[in-house]
Amino acid sequence: MGTGYPGKHDNQKTPTLSTNLRCSVSDEGSADPRLAGLHYCEHMAGLMYVRDMKLLLKPAFEAVLTEMELQTLVWRIEKVADYPNGIEIPDGALIASNEAWIRWEVLSETGGSGSLPLDNGTSTLTRFVQSDLQDFIAESHFGWGEFREPLDQP
């Protein structure tokens, strides 16, 4: 499963999201093994590294898309301010709440999330993206009117 659109936007400059923060890596013994190794920043709620967001959200896509749909899935995280010609934010970038959104393509149909809310934790973020993905599926040609059971996050 890819996380970008290869070949598109190759000549555009890479977005920079700057911040000076002290960050740490979560304990490997985390209650939720998907969260082990994610980076958390001290005293800065509402911030997350792109690479960690991708790790966190991958199961949300896997929970609602069929195997055939997953094989065609391409998704990436873009800055909202770059709309409509957004480019993928690098994995090492730190993004703030409502600064980015997800764009996806499934079976040649495109869609995306709203601005990503990071202020209320990873569970809220996952449910938000999954809700937008569910809306996309229900309005798509391949899944018209279907409800796919959402992933139950801790």
Written account of the structure:
The chain has one domain. Helices cover 25% and strands 19% of the residues. The protein has helices at residues 50-64, 67-72, 122-139; strands spanning 23-25, 39-41, 47-49, 74-79, 94-96, 100-106, 109-112. The strands form 3 sheets. Strands 4-6-7 form a 3-stranded antiparallel sheet. A hairpin with a 2-residue loop joins strand 6 (100-106) and strand 7. Helix 1 packs across helix 3 (122-139). The longest helix is centred in the last third of the chain and has 18 residues, at 122-139. Residues 1-32 and 39-43 have low confidence and may be disordered.
In short:
Helices cover 25% and strands 19% of the residues. It is of the alpha+beta class and 154 residues long.
